[in-house]
Specification:
The structure is a single chain. With 146 residues, this protein is of the alpha/beta class. The protein has a single domain (8-145), classed as 3-Layer(aba) Sandwich (Rossmann fold). The chain is 45% helix and 12% strand. The chain is built from five helices and four strands, in the order ααβαββαβα. The strands form two sheets. A two-stranded parallel ribbon has the order 1-2. Helix 3 (67-82) links the parallel strand 1 (40-45) and strand 2. The longest helix has 19 residues, at 15-33. It starts with 7 loop residues before the first helix and ends with a helix.
Length: 146
Amino acid sequence: MLSAYSNPTWISKNKIKAKNLNFNSTIDFIEFLKPINPRIIFMSSVEVFDGGKGGYSEKDSPNPLNYYGKLKYNLEKYLENNYSNYTIVRTGWNVGLNKKSRCVVSLTYETLLKKKARMAVFNIFFEKFIKLNIVYYEIVRLCVLQ
């Protein structure tokens, strides 16, 4: 299930629009699907974590720091409490080949070129990158195995 605005900065400035699509409309869609009970593969995000340690697993407790992460985590909880046939997939920043997409490498480079550029360094910076073709392959595999 891919039903979200995905730019955390935009979302923090447009919370009402973001909540309407990322949360309310997604719940409406889940409720619409309930009678036929198809398997839902919900694309969540590492943004449900605070980034403090990195190397997260399913056993780690979410602690979202931004509104995007909070919306994702609230949907995860909704699925867990209201739907039986689901899988939650938490990915990092997916990097595609589309030049118009928000590529973290390009954004980092552009930020560093700015006058008085400052960036925080996180121990999980590079482990968050995932090639989209790997994500797609694993999602298809999940669908076939379930």
